[in-house]
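Comment thread on ticket #2218

A.B. wrote:
> Attaching the input chain for the structure job we discussed in standup.
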Amino acid sequence: MDAQLRAIDETKVKINKRKGVIAFIKVFPNFSIIIENMLPPADGPERLETRAMVDAAYNKIIRSMFDSLKTIAKSAPMTGQGFGADPEDKEALNYHILLIENMFHFYNELDERGDAALGQWRGKAMLEMSEHQELYVNAIIRRPMGKLLDFLDSAENLIGRGVTPASIPSSHPSHSRSVYKKILGAYDAKEVRRGVDTLRKRIEKHFGEADDAMISAELIKKITAECERKYNDVCDRANRVAGEMYEGSVQVDFMKQDISQAFRR
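C.D. wrote:
> Ran it. Output below, let me know if you need it in another format.
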C-alpha cells in the first residue's frame, strides 16, 4: 500500500506533456480487476474481512490518485469558481481538459463489480468530469459568442436585481435598442456556422490526441453535443431578452434550426 501511494505521489508530468490519461489513472482499472479476481469466494467466511481491507485500500489509493491528478493539472492560481478573469486562459483550459480526459477514462474503464467503494469513486469521477466539462464549454464558446454572452449576462443581471425589463433600454444606454440590434447583427446564420466550425476544430485539437481513439471520439462527440446545447440556450436567452426588454422590436437573426444545421455540417 505504501509503495502504491508513494508511486502515485511521485508521479511527475512536464508542463508540455500535461495532457492525455496519466499513468496511474490508466493502470488502476486493470489493477482493481486483478485484485477483485484474487478475493475469496463470495460465500467464504474470510470474504467479509478481506472485502473491508481491500475497500479501505481502494479508498486510500483512489483519493491519492484524484488529489495527485489535480496537482499535476493545476498550474495557475485558482480564484473564485475558476482561474483568472479570462476564461480563455490556456492554463485554465488545460486544467479542465486533463481532468475531463482522466475522469472520463476512469469512469468508463473501471469495472466496479458491484463493490460499493469502487462504485462510489466511479460516481465521483462522473461528477468531476461533468463539473469540468461545464467550465470548459462555458469557456470555449466565449470566443465565437462572447459579445452576445456579455450583453445577455449584463441584461439578465439587471433583471435579476429587480429592474423592470421594459425600463432598461431607456435608463441604461449600454442596453439601448440600437446597441442590442448592433450586437445581434454580428450573429446571423452564416456567422453562427463559422463560429461552430471553429469551435469544432478547437474541440478536436484539445481531445483528438487521446491514447485511445475510441475514447477520444466519444469525448469529442459528448462535448460537441454539450456545446450545441449551450448554443440553443444562448438562442433562448437572446429571444427572451428581445421580448422582455424590447417588446419584440429587435429580432434575433439566427434560430435553433441554424444551430442544428451548423453542428451537423
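A.B. wrote:
> Thanks. Noting for the ticket: The chain has two domains: 2-136, 142-263.
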